[in-house]
Amino acid sequence: MRIPVLAATLLATTLFSAVSHAGETLDRVTKTGVLHNAIVNDYPPFGFIDDNNQLAGFDVDVAKAVAERMGVKAVITAPGWETLIGGKWAGRWDTCICSMTPNTERAKVLDFPTPYYSSPAVLVVNKKDDRIKSAADLSNRKVGIGMGSSYETYLQKTLVIPGAKPIDFPFSNVQAIPSDEEIAFQNLALGPGVRLDAIVSDLATANARIKRNPDAFKIVTELYAEPNWIATDKGDPQWDKKVADTIKSLRDDGTLAKISQHWLGEDITKEEP
To answer: Domain 5-119+227-264 belongs to what architecture?
Structure first.
């Protein structure tokens, strides 16, 4: 399920509009010829460290394509999720092409110029588990989620995604256990209820984990639509427009679709009319 174009436009032009210091980031990128992009490095297939000890993944390739289309060099780093969602980047990064879902709290400190893909949140359990078949079965369970992720606010029943349909919360008294997602999946692999009863994750990420360890995990249901937007620091509407226009260009000529097919075997970058 995708966010309609009209809703996306309203998001980009109202709730997430920057209001001051117009042109600062755009001027910096133009003058230096460098686009500094931040990602997370423990979120395959979107961002991870490959066998050559290099950052790789869907988000890495999208960032490189954005920089190339702008005529600048991409410098990609993984500073830590909590640092990124806190805003006030002070010029350290120009974009966060990092699989971030906008919510009302993040919108207070970051701008979100444009969506670039959508992949639903899913519920993952140990493959031997026959107790949990839906979100309603999460009541009084221990559920792993990525540190600082929107999945924690989902389990707290406070998640609001601007422009998306209201989310259903058919559970109570869930014990959310934040950690590195790699650790969460390692804990779930120990067995049903040993350390975790379930994990809330992204569909593509969950599929990547299952591919690596098909006997350990299974997806029991999709939970809600999860749009992912490029994030920027607050204050430069000219830069936000440049980013949005560049993503549109990459979508229109099929570049985003090719990157998606390479990493995911399907196109998750399409927008509904």
So the answer is: 3-Layer(aba) Sandwich (3.40)
Say how far apart CA 172 and CA 174 lie, in whole Å: 6
For the chain, give every domain's residue range. 5-119+227-264, 121-224
What topology is assigned to 121-224 in CATH? D-Maltodextrin-Binding Protein; domain 2 (3.40.190)
CB 83 within 8 Å of CB 17: no
Assign 150 to helix, strand or coil.
Answer: helix
Q: Produce one character per residue of 199-221: b if its CB has 16 or more CB atoms within 10 Å, e if not.
A: bbbbbbbbbbbbeeeeebbebbb
**How far apart, in whole angstroms, are the C-alpha atoms of residue 223 and residue 219?**
11
What are the pLDDT digits (tens) for 27-47?
A: 999 999 999 999 999 889 999
Angle between helices 255-264 and 237-252 (to 10 degrees): 70
Say what the pTM is: 0.81
Residues of the chain with pLDDT under 50: 1-21, 273
